[in-house]
């Protein structure tokens, strides 16, 4: 939520091992489609169709794939048009309509036997392809303009292509000096709550004026990118009936943290009496998640619990190094077992899982790695005290996030299979013993993701694997996942001086240097006599299943860390 809204078109000998350390490719993103259209429901530009039934029928016939569009944004829409269209779209869609005025021109579309002020309202609507329902909101974005119109921005919040999304449409006044863009961005800031953001509508400004007006607005939920930026295809006509479209006044924007591959096209669907506005269709693709990424920049990030009980986020740079830390937990984290791998809340972002005392919590990632209000994962009958649960990604290959849990005595390792996050984080199935070694208490569990390049025909593709560091001998083992069948026999992929005395902390975040191989980070023991050590070192994975030349990526101060994740 701290990013300003922008609208624009780093010792050891190498240890050989037989196992490949390639990071499996992330699941493909999902396509998202959007329509934004000023339908001119009243005034002299309204359609000459007889009634709301005819209008809704024509909308479904003329608008390309209207009944298969994820986000529908309509401006200058009469209440009757909205009601009739929602009936046609059916239970697979939910929307929000809001208006601040009525217009006699909406009589034509009124579903009431006798039109009333309520039934002839004219405003805007956002409709989402979801049967789960939406949370609607609106804000007056400016005082009444010279024509008496009170301009609204209307929003609907709900799931879009698996992401919790705030979709807003705006019908702004021609005079951008009146501050309507400020109000719009402020409303998004107040209501996004870390959700993905989609914004579209009739902005009534040409592109060279749009940038300046938006740049002057308040911060919002992540940078936005314009679909089809720079093309400037006209979407509106300023002159009388029959005129060609002469200006680009309609736009679609997507939060860049959540969407990519944007594009747009313009369609003249002729649902108005004159050439007033063309329909704008935009497309985007949800960004496929990257193991370990909390900030949304497709790079793995590091969490550190300091010995003062605070939690810090170190954003990855993509070269094995990290940016300066951010404080994301101000206290109470001492002794917590922290991990981050997988989306537990269904919004497309990787979340943080922590065992604190007897409880297991999911801390939702509300955007950029900031943490929202924690949600409990239902306890086992015996609780979680003394156990070491780690979010490991999808271990069983069913597409849901799972936990790998070392029991309190360390004698066993259990797989807790996650459920669909639509109703909240859950572990709906009985835990499975996955075997591996005799005593897990001697090991640090590491979650590098899918590193074994399972062939598709094996049925093991896209299943996360495990690494484990023997704290006494320093031996590093790799355990390939076999899904619900447990773990395969381990392969040794590292050793020598990797014991917990010389290397107190070890963590695997996935591919931190963008070479397609899972990497390892370790801290070194502080030597008081020489005042050296307590550094952070990167051990880059190699294609030969080894770890390459170490690189120091953090100098001093890492002795203050209780754990890394």
Structure, described:
The structure is a single chain. The chain is mostly beta strands and 565 residues long. Helix content is 8%, strand content 32%. It has 4 helices and 32 strands. The chain has helices at residues 52-62, 79-89, 180-192, 207-215, and strands at residues 31-38, 71-78, 94-102, 121-128, 135-140, 152-160, 163-171, 196-202, 224-226, 250-255, 259-267, 279-286, 302-306, 311-314, 326-329, 337-339, 352-356, 359-363, 375-376, 388-393, 402-406, 413-416, 432-433, 443-449, 465-470, 476-479, 491-494, 506-510, 519-523, 536-539, 551-554, 561-564. The strands form 7 sheets. It has a 6-stranded mixed sheet with strand order 3-4-2-1-12-11. A 6-stranded mixed sheet has the order 5-6-7-8-10-9, covered by helices on one side. Helix 1 (52-62) packs across helix 2 (79-89). The longest helix is centred in the N-terminal third of the chain and has 13 residues, at 180-192. The protein is elongated and about 85 Å long. Mean pLDDT is 84; it is low at 1-22, 215-221 and 455-460.
- Principal-axis shape equals elongated
| Unreliable segments of 5+ consecutive residues | 1-22, 215-221, 455-460
Strand count, sense and closure of the main sheet? 6 strands, mixed
Which percent range describes the beta-strand content? 25-35%
Q: Number of helical segments?
A: 4
Q: Which strands sit side by side, in order, in the main sheet?
A: 3-4-2-1-12-11
In terms of quaternary structure, the protein is single chain
Tell me the radius of gyration. Answer: 27 Å
Extended strand count: 32
What class would the helix/strand composition place it in? Answer: mainly beta
Range of helix content = under 10%
N-C termini distance:
23 Å
Mean of pLDDT: 84
